[in-house]
């Protein structure tokens, strides 16, 4: 059934064509097409249950029960809403988990430094705050030196202030690393704040896409920011005026 192809591509960071994924005979993803350029930051919005996480898992190579073509770089990494740290391993060992070869502690330390968590290198996961655990999870993604970073609601469980800091961190990391990012989020503002391009998934396909041509760092008080936000909310079937009330 599957014509799953995971191999490096030079022209696109992601190339997906004719992708279909069904559960119990129901196509959640239905002949979907998607391209992401190398170094591009793409945000993926869509109603709950529309298939965003399913698509991300397929791109991560975690779900191969598919039809269609999926081309992604070999070097890819994924971070989920739950940081998924092993409680019996110290932070730095969690960062190196599953890495090929025998990378040393210094490799983990370098990544932890990049996310501002090197002071917790030897900590146990249960002693980390939610924001710290999420940064450890990001460090674990970064040590893989990904050409494609897949983020599934990574800030969803954070309080508002920690979330803003985490968003800034991801923007910084993306600019420094130059990797392509695909961010699944429920937050329209977050999408407009971070992405070069925002996609709206509906009916098993990318139903709408919008380029965000605003200078960085983005100013949420810019009227064009509000316009884009309203347009995307409308696409999601939410009335912006009612939502703001
Ligand atoms: N392993 C599975 N078995 C059966 N159905 C599944 C499985 N995984 C996902 N689904 C179904 O596929 C649909 C899409 O799920 P998915 O998690 O991709 O949605 P989502 O857009 O990420 O939702 P949310 O925004 O709520 O996280 C849902 O109806 C879900 O119940």
Automatic annotation (TrEMBL):
Cited InterPro entries: AAA+_ATPase, ABC_transporter-like_ATP-bd, ABC_transporter-like_CS, ABC_transporter_ATP-bind, P-loop_NTPase
Keywords attached to this entry: ATP-binding, Cell membrane, Membrane, Nucleotide-binding, Translocase, Transport
Entry-linked PROSITE patterns: ABC_TRANSPORTER_1, ABC_TRANSPORTER_2
GO molecular function: ATP binding
SMART domains given in the database record: AAA
SUPFAM superfamilies: P-loop containing nucleoside triphosphate hydrolases
Keyword match Membrane: yes
Keyword Cell membrane: yes
Domain of life where this protein originates: Bacteria
Ranges for domain ABC transporter: 14-228
PANTHER family, sorted: ALIPHATIC SULFONATES IMPORT ATP-BINDING PROTEIN SSUB, TAURINE IMPORT ATP-BINDING PROTEIN-RELATED
The protein's name in its UniProt record: ABC transporter ATP-binding protein
